[in-house]
Amino acid sequence: MPAVSTPNHEVKSGSDAVPPASSVEDSSTVASRPLIRFDVLTLFPNLFEGFLSESILKRALERNLIAVHRHDLRNWASNKHHQVDDRPFGGGPGMVLMAPPVVEAVEAVQALTAPPGLVLAMTPSGRRLDQEWVRRLATQPRLILLCGRYEGFDERIIELLQPELVSIGDYVLSGGEVPAMVVIDAVSRLIPGVLGDDQSAVEDSFGPEGLLDHPHYTRPRLYRGLSVPEVLTSGNHAEIARWRREQALQRTRQRFREAVLPTIPNAPYGSAPPATE
Ligand code: 4FV
Question: Is 124 a known active-site residue?
Fold first, then answer.
């Protein structure tokens, strides 16, 4: 069992392959150290290739605003067969991720650098991820993302590591890699400098007020007989802001009828609309 995960255990990704300053439009934008580091523990590190090498995340990695290090769990396999899973005690279908390789992998990766980081385990039995939780995670300097496979984790992995259990939704996936990508994408958007103009993260859906986003329109002005709401081409920004807020409220009420309205200060309807509506 390797004492610590030496570099060759790490699957080189954007973070430790920051291109020379010359290749980044203007070098001053390369941060001296990333604002947040993600360590992903997975049996399929290559699944993240495309995800990390396009668009917003690619640029954020190039500018060293974030770092993503991938670690192959199989490197902590318990025996020469690189075994990381085994049949469930008590019988039943499928296989279970074994505790020794997973626990020792997390401990070795946490010991790679300081701080040890907050451990998150992706599992359908976790708490549902939401924007409020994403905002909290974006304040962490380091997140350790544990990706399950097979029927799931040996329960002693949870007992020993006490990770925060994260679910992206009540459906069963074939692995925790996609949920880990969801966390990396949602959290990275809140890291200063990652999005073009910082403003957009705030105006996104589920902003601080918890409102859904207002409708968006762009050219062409007329498409298959459908036009753009007049107010949006009026140039009257106060009116536009009022219309957008009204739309966001309607959509939010539509979606979360009773839940959200009472918490919005001086919402046009004051308290939740009468039940009859
Ligand atoms: C999942 C979810 C999810 C369950 C068995 C991976 C799979 C396999 N993770 N939100 N929904 N995980 O379905 O986070 O180990």
Answer: yes
